[in-house]
Amino acid sequence: AKLIFGDESAALAEGRCATLQTLSGTGAVSVAAAALCRMAGARTIHVPDPSWGNHGHIFRSAGLEVQNYAYLDHRTGTTLDFDGMRAALSGLPRGSVVLLHACAHNPTGIDPSGEQWQELAELFAGRGLVALFDSAYQGYASGDLDADAASVRAFEAAGVLPVACQSYAKSLGLYGERIGAVNFVCASREEAEAVLSTVKQTIVRPAYSSPPLHGARLAAEVLGDAALFAQWRGELRGMANRVHRMRVLLADALRAEGAPSPDGGDWGHVVDQIGMFAYTGLSASHVDSLRERHHVYLTRDGRMSMAAMKPADIEYVARAVRSVLAE
After folding, report:
1. Annotation says 267 is catalytic
2. How many beta carbons lie within 10 A of that of residue 209, not counting itself?
3. What is the reported pTM?
4. Residues 285-293: contacts with CB within 8 Å, 24+ apart?
5. Which of 81, 134, 148, 263 is catalytic?
6. CA distance linking residue 116 with residue 114, whole number of Å
7. Which of 9, 84, 95, 296 is the most exposed place for a label (fewest CB within 10 A)?
8. Are 215 and 178 in contact (CB under 8 A)?
């Protein structure tokens, strides 16, 4: 919890945060969804358009109806529609549950700015909306653990009581160990204790009883040892910087090849986006051509894995993209 809420968190200082270990980030979102449905009486959750493909399955399995709010600007296909997002959220009834990606939005890699997050935090506080954060990439997005948690911290500071889901799969390289956590920020210590007990007994116990121990001990060892924690932070910066370098190299190569950017720009969106993926703006037919003619693989919404890119791949990928865009 301290990793995401930080040293200045009032909720942690006052014992108002109920934290449970979960089966990675997927398990955290599942537990949160079940709690919001069964304990808080939520019937609908509002998710960004688009969102991670598994979100809808998780929420519907928990008994929630899934509705979308504006996020991607479909006019460009590569930028945030903040005005549309703000308008949609402003029109929701009090108590509505809203899913937010804490950083490195999946699949687009498009995040609100710091000022926009602050504006959203004030909107949620004023409208009485429930913020459910999915934080799958803290530290791996920008290379800065604090910067990647700034959205969650802004909401807590604004008086919102967020639910924050964490995954250590990517950031600690523990994908197969299924290590995560869900944090319910409450109005009082007594409420936090009641939430913790009820979630354990009515949601976690019937589903998987107790979470795995081995990966949790590895995470605790790294997070609890000053030297290991410092080393880990350095490694996160190194990985995030490497991914960013691939973005810069690819954008430069696409410009050098004369490939027309699908959004009418200069491929700057590839650099401006953040995290493992780039939302290229390529269409499904472009993606199909890349796969069939050049053996370059993207998901059909145009999402490209920048984490998988290597310097030796850049020129070939750029030429392949130019080729399919010229068809």
Report:
1. no
2. 8
3. 0.96
4. 286/262, 286/321, 286/324, 286/325, 289/323, 289/324, 289/327, 290/320, 290/321, 290/324, 293/320, 293/323, 293/324
5. 134
6. 5
7. 95
8. yes
* 2 a catalytic residue: no
- DSSP string for 61-101: HTTPEEEEEE-B-TTTSSSB-HHHHHHHHHTSPTT-EEEEE
Q: What angle do CA 145, 147, 149 make, to 5 degrees?
A: 70
Tell me the per-residue pLDDT of 167-203, one tens digit each, with 9 for 90 and over.
999 999 998 999 999 999 999 999 999 999 999 999 9
Catalytic residue among 81, 148, 170, 232: 170
Q: Token match 């979102």: residue?
A: 29
Give the chain's mean pLDDT.
97
Largest Cα–Cα distance in the chain? Answer: 64
Candidate list 52, 117, 232, 267, residue with the active-site label: 52
Owner of token pair 């490195």: 104
Nearest to 149 by CA among 138, 134, 160: 138
Q: Is 52 a catalytic residue?
A: yes
Q: What is the pLDDT of residue 90?
A: 98
